[in-house]
Amino acid sequence: MEGKKVGTAELPEAIFNAEIFVDLMHQAFVRQMANARLGTHQTKVRGEVSGGGRKPWRQKGTGRARQGSIRAAHWKGGGRIHTPHPRSYAQAMPLKMRRAALRSALSVKAAEANIVVVDKLELAEPKTRLMAKALNVLVGDAKALIVIPQKESFEGVVRSTNNLPDAKILLANYLNIRDLLKYEKLILPLASLDTISNNLG
Questions:
Q1: Which sign, positive or negative, has the C-alpha torsion 188, 190, 195, 200?
Q2: What are 63-104's pLDDT values in tens digits?
Q3: Tell me: the pLDDT tens digits for 113-169?
C-alpha cells in the first residue's frame, strides 16, 4: 500500500500472456453495452393515439384531399410511422469467447505494465483521504480498477473508494471487458489472482 516492493508474484501465463484477439474484445464490449440498454422506448402508432374515429369530411365534393382520420401520420397529433417500440437489445456470445476476450484484455494490461499487484489491501480506518493517498502512491493520476475477491474482508476499502471519481471497486467474479478497457490501471490484491485464475483458467 506504500508503493514498496515486498516480493514477487507470478501471473498465470495462460491468462496474462495469452494471444490477443482485438475482434473478440470489441465484440464482447459491444455485447455488454447492448445488454445494458433497457429498450423501453415507445411511440404511438395511429391506432394508439386518441381521437380520429370519425372521417373528418366526406369523401367527394369538398375540393380537398380525401382523408379518413385526423390521426393519420401526416396530421399534427397523429400517429408515428417506423418509430421505436419496446424491444430487447441483448446479444448472445458463447462463454468461451467471453473468457477469451477477458484474457486478451488482461494480457494487454500486463504487456503495457498497467497491472499493480499488492500483497494486501487494507486501511487503518475507512477514510477516503487515506485511500486517495494510497492510490496516488500506487498508480499516480491514472484511473484505477481495484479487483477484490469478496466484500467481507475489504469493507473499509470499499467504503473509502466509493467517493473517488477515478477509482472503482469490482468483485473478481464480476470482471468485465468494459471496466478493463475504461480504467487504465488494474490493482490486484494477491487474493484476487486465485479467483481470476479459477474463472478464466
A1: positive
A2: 999 999 999 999 999 999 999 999 999 999 999 999 999 999
A3: 999 999 888 888 889 999 999 999 999 999 999 999 988 888 999 999 999 999 999
Q: Residue 136: helix, strand or coil by DSSP?
A: helix
List 189's β-bridge partners, or say none: 118
Q: Judge whether 189 and 134 are in contact, CB under 8 Å.
A: no
Report the alpha-carbon distance of residue 70 to residue 51 in Å, rounded.
8
Nearest to 144, CA basis, from 126, 155, 160: 160
3-state helix, strand, coil in the chain (%, to 5): 40, 10, 50
C-alpha to C-alpha distance for 3 and 194, rounded to whole angstroms? 22
Cα–Cα distance for residue pair 46/63, rounded to 1 Å: 25
Q: How buried is 65 (Cβ within 10 angstroms: 0-12 exposed, 13-18 middle, 19+ buried)?
A: exposed
Take residue 168 and report the three cell numbers written for it: 472503482
DSSP string for 152-200: GGGHHHHHHHTT-TTEEEEEGGG--HHHHHH-SEEEEEHHHHHHHHHHH
Q: For residue 189, which of 126, 138, 119 has the smallest C-alpha distance?
A: 119
φ, ψ for residue 168, nearest 5 deg: -145, 140
Alpha carbons within 13 angstroms on the beta-carbon side of residue 134 total 23
pTM attached to this predicted model: 0.84
What are the grid coordinates assigned to 137, written together? 502512491
